[in-house]
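Forwarding the complex inputs:
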Amino acid sequence: MTEPEQAAPVRVGCVADLPPGSVRIVPVGRFGVAVYNVNGRFYALNNFCPHMGAELGRGPITGTTVAAEPYQRTYCRDGEIVRCPWHGWEFDIKTGETLAGRVRRVQTFRAWSEDGVVFVASRPNGRARIKDGT
Amino acid sequence: MNGDESVSAPRRLVIDAAVHPAFARPDGIREYMSSEWSTNLVLPAPWRFAYANPVGDFRPEFTPGEDWPGSDRDALRRHVLDDANVDLAVLSPLGRGFIPDPEFYAAVNTALNSWLAREWLDIDRRFLGSIRVNPQEPVAAVREIERWAGHRQMVQVVVPLQSHRPYGDRTFLPVWEAAATAGLPVAVHAEIAAGVDFWPTILGYPEQFIDYALMLSTSGVLHMASLISEGVFDRLPELVFVFGDGAFDIHLPFLWRMDKDYRPFKIELAWLQSTPSDYMNRHIRFLTHSRTEGPRDAGDLAEFIDIWGGERLLVFGSGYPHWDYADPGAAYATLPAVQRDAIMGGNAEQLFARRLPAGPADA
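Prediction (whole assembly, two chains):
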């Protein structure tokens, strides 16, 4: 079930208590980890915005806008994006990447359900890339 | 890197991208207008009534007699090209300000462009021209751009810096489309004539000329921001804007702010493919603003030009024959050769590449 180098998974709660579109912050690592249910699948992000350190898990779960050409704005990906509660940076819940310019990425953790219970890994997936400081 | 070793290398073109020729008498423009406009109707004067320049609008040595400065072709050619060792000069005569009747305004612009082609471009291939249009009236502006698009020496479209709305506004789009279709950059210059005045600054009416002159540059960066955020360059990926009137020295702090705000407010600008500063680097250039802006110390100036991107963004324009004329022999003389060559000609060469004669000008 777990890779050899991974520490023991942490129990998040019952699947029934984490319905699609919801988030739960669990005490993993220095800042906690925000575990999301996006359309029935579970994802987890470090509860620390790589911009200035806000609690990402307290940001609204939302979608984003795209445009094939100027002024043709379309709202999409509802439920797949978290906006930082401080400065509004958008992060893809599934990958931890910022949508604007991909300057930074938030750490992701593996999350899954098993027998009606949600688990999250206690160590992040690899290392978050930090390209520059803008 | 040492310039002494490259004696045999071909000399880089030197291009003066801001020269302002004029009619010998302001009424001379009537000869180029059809009778329904040239008879009876009163033209606005080609100078400002308010915010007069306390030291005069023109350099005295370029004002030899009764005629308007910049009107003597032989003198201009000598001053701007031969004596200054400049290869090519982009001529952009100023207009008559904003005229409320759009057809009258269009007739003035047509006359100005016809005069420029016949009296200047036709007599010397080293003169390059500007198509002056009024973007507030896109139909007439597009018509005028299309009229001159095939003229090999017309290298840019020129519009006033003053505007009712920022230039990213969708009402102007047909004008920029016509410029892009013709392969021409759009230059933005402050109009100094006495037509209907827009607010002279974004804050309204200052009391003195110094405030008036200073605040022109803020309009440039606000046009720049608007063009980027409204997606003009997403629609017209080849289009380049060139700002006169001193926006270079303040553009970078505006862009720092805009890049930063782009992240939280990206949902408003879903069409942008990258940060605003990426768009600026691809689509915006700045004329040198007559007097060299920046630190006075030579080392500091080179560093400032480096940080501010001047080697890519700055295009030399002397402003001849205006009071703040910059002598191309002396301008940026302390800069390293790479920076100076780019500013004095290389950047303009790229900007106007599609219209320039092949190969360097005759030595």
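Residues 41 and 112 of chain A are 7 Å apart (CA to CA).
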